[in-house]
Design a protein that fits this description.
- It is a single chain.
- The chain is mainly alpha-helical and about 180 residues long.
- Helices cover about 70% and strands about 0% of the residues.
- It is elongated, with a radius of gyration of 18 Å.
């Protein structure tokens, strides 16, 4: 995609300045590069750029890379890693968190991981109950077998997720713009 090409071009042209940047900014550049590489379908290279980065943002990008590469088990596992711990409390999850949980449910469905879906339902049903994803989550996790999700419903579920992704991308771009403004 053109935006990925442009991002990689800017990162490449400013690579010399990279050596003098603070460590946090170097990691941010690597994360931007990994996202752009993923959009170009260079999944292994994108993951390589994140090597050694244990930040939450890097984990989110890894999940995105696995999703784009249709590595459903790895995508589900990467998303699950964003939410470690015991019982999930509804008040502690944002719409963004619920979005990622929905993506995890889709990934588990695509991987035909019935046990994973059952575990998700048990842990996150209360969290998802009053969200805009409630019906889709119920559909995805209620099926006795992952194959039971009606195929006609899957595009709607995926479209809901893609709409949320556009919102998240816009929010991310605004955050990056604010960071860039503070750096100048």
């Amino acid at each position: 995609d053109n935006e990925a090409d442009a991002a990689l071009d800017v990162l490449d042209r400013t690579k010399m300045a990279d050596a003098s940047l603070p460590t946090a900014l170097k990691w941010e550049r690597r994360q931007l590069e990994a996202r752009a590489l993923s959009r170009q379908g260079q999944f292994d290279t994108a993951l390589q750029r994140l090597k050694g980065d244990g930040s939450r943002e890097a984990e989110v990008i890894r999940a995105e890379v696995f999703w784009r590469d249709k590595q459903w088990n790895r995508a589900a596992a990467a998303i699950a890693g964003l939410y470690p711990g015991g019982a999930a409390e509804p008040g502690t999850f944002s719409d963004t968190d619920r979005h990622f949980l929905m993506r995890q449910a889709v990934a588990l469905t695509m991987a035909k991981d019935r046990r994973g879906l059952q575990a998700m339902r048990g842990r996150y049903q209360a969290v998802m109950r009053d969200s805009r994803y409630a019906k889709a989550f119920d559909l995805m996790t209620h099926a006795v077998y992952a194959d039971d999700v009606p195929l006609l419903e899957l595009p709607k579920v995926l479209a809901d997720i893609e709409g949320a992704e556009a919102f998240l991308a816009d929010s991310r771009a605004q955050r990056e713009a604010r960071k860039a403004g503070r750096a100048n």
